[in-house]
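Hello,

I think I submitted the adenosine-5'-diphosphate job twice by accident. Can you confirm which output corresponds to this input? Input:
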Amino acid sequence: MAEDTILESTERTSGREALRKNVQAAIALAGAVRSTLGPKGLDKLLVDDEGSTLVTNDGVTVLETARVEHPVAKMVISSSSTQDRVARDGTTTTVVICAEMLRNAWQLVRQGVHPATIARGFALAEDFALNVLEELSIEATDEQILSAIETSLAGKLDQAMESHLSKLAFDAGKIILKDGRADPTRVKIIKQTGGTMKDTTLITGLALAKSRIHPEMNERGGAGSILLLDGGLEKRKTQLDTKLNITTPGMIEAFRKAETKGLISQIENLVEIGCDVLVCKEGVDEEARQALCDRGILTYRRVEKKDLDLLSRACGANLVPDAQRATKGDLGSFINTREELRGGVNNWILDAAEGGATLIARGSTEGVLDEVVRCFADGLGVACQLLEKPVLLTGAGATQVALGRRLRRHAESVPGREQMAIEAWADALESIPRALAANAGFDGIDSLLKLTAAQNSRGDSIGLDLQNGEPEDAIKRGILEPLNITKQAISGATEAAISILRIDDVLWAQMDAQVPDGIQEQMQGFGAE
Ligand code: ADP
Ligand code: MG
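Support: Only one job matched these inputs. Its output is below.
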């Protein structure tokens, strides 16, 4: 045998072996989260090295907590993390589809199709699918937006709690929606242990667990102007070790007086510019408190920087370092201010034109509270996406099956081996309805076949009813998902699968230049044959 043919075949064997291992890693990873998929998905108990535990059925949480070393598995995990960041949902779906794409690709490689051809076919399939998704999507009503939020929380908490949090997330989204934009960071979350999670409520306006600094201060109510101070109203604390040389009696007294005068003159400036409410990052001295009270300036102190930032955005106020130099231009405005006692905690609540809402999360333990906050944040992410762009796709496996059917028809028109890759890609999507059915205790393949047949006669919106494993209209049942989540899951999975298929090519190229030891041995064995 000529040397170059030997080299060629050896390269191919090693390349395939590398791909096989990478595919195996992705499949193993998907195996770790597949059972959490869908409303009937099971929970995982995660234990870290310090022994603290977390029960979750959130795919990305499982994967991010696991200490995974395999570089390919890490790539798949990072596609899931991206999904979480960009779409806030669909993380398990991304991993399951990606692994299935690779599994199917591997079957094709075994039949002699080159990974690069498969990668091309996958990219073609993705392009086609993204267009079909637009066609399959529906304009959402408010009621459907709420259903989609509920779908995204399905299986995370008990059902009553899921609908409670979905409603709160939807309401919060509506409050912060301004000019077609809903920025979830405008919603503040306060965690309060005690009570049950059903006591979790939403307040219009920004709430801070604070009381005014002087009980005699007028609570006011109504609209006014606000100044945010990135400091306090305190007598200066000497920064350096300075010495005061006391030479005459009464000097300390005079020094203190001068300091108090300084504070009062700062407050006079606040009166001058027309400040009604003052919020300080730091403290306020006793004399200043009384002076503020006398002048009718409602004051709150020791407010965290991140809350000051929220207030600044909501009221359009500047954060000023020094009350003495504050000007009218630094003031922001609000619509109303009030204090309210909730669950034994006093809250100061401010309504401002630029909106803002506060979730007061309640729960019996820190763990429960964290779960409530996580679910609300996920629901809010979905709510904001849908309020900005109310476009939905069906869930319950309906979209994946509809897409698969169209792709197979489309594949017939594609000449060459890419056709096989497009079919393999379409098959991979169907791993979602299969897993949903299997997790609900039904046979995955039977359910998929029934579903496909039902779509053929009843239309694209037929999905699986996981109560009985039967095909049912997903739109009627309100199993809906934002277009963006499904799109992102499909693109993310495809991109990760393609880059993993390409890794093989890279290994190939490297081996060309420098053949690693193990392979050198194999080659020698091979040549001796
Ligand atoms: P992911 O991390 O991918 O979001 P989930 O565990 O949240 O995974 O499961 C999402 C899947 O569950 C979606 O395919 C969605 O359509 C499906 N699903 C959610 N609720 C239902 C339901 N009531 N009936 C059928 N399928 C559902
Ligand atoms: Mg989900």
